[in-house]
What we know:
Blueprint: H1 2-7, H2 13-40, H3 49-92, H4 109-122, H5 125-137, H6 139-144, H7 152-171
Amino acid sequence: MQATQQSIHATDLVPRLCLTLANLNRVVYFVCDTVLWVRSVGLASGINKEKWRMWAARHYYYSLLLSLVRDLYEISLQMEQVTQDRAKREKLTSQDPLGYSVADEETEWLQSFLLLLFRSLRKHPPLLLDTVKNLCDILNPLDQLGIYKSNPGIIGLGGLVSSIAGIITVAWPHLKLKTHTS
Length: 182
């Protein structure tokens, strides 16, 4: 709930909305997970395990999906900043007509996009870590909900990569993606 209260104060509307809804869905996920735990330890037997498991997976999925929307929004802002910085540099050094340009005519649009994405994420490692973590985490609920079936090895590898990204943000807090608040 504390994360939800903090996300309400984000200065930008998109992160504020995405993070607040993601955190609320995460709270519902934890409630569902707790109900499943209560059933598994035998404190309550009349709980429909499959129904609660699906609710938990659904809310975890929504939470991750909203977090990824926030990540994509932040990536688009970073890409815009890199593009503006490059345009300023090219304007200052316009006497060199043979200078390299991301939008060079011979460069395919996909290569240009991927290069811009790489440069944007290289300048913002916390955003890269958060995006990788969320992409890896979403594999499990996608499989549980039947949206995209995967094999257990891929889901396990995604969990491992996600855990490593999480450990990195704990070990080096400056690599945790921050929300700009007012």
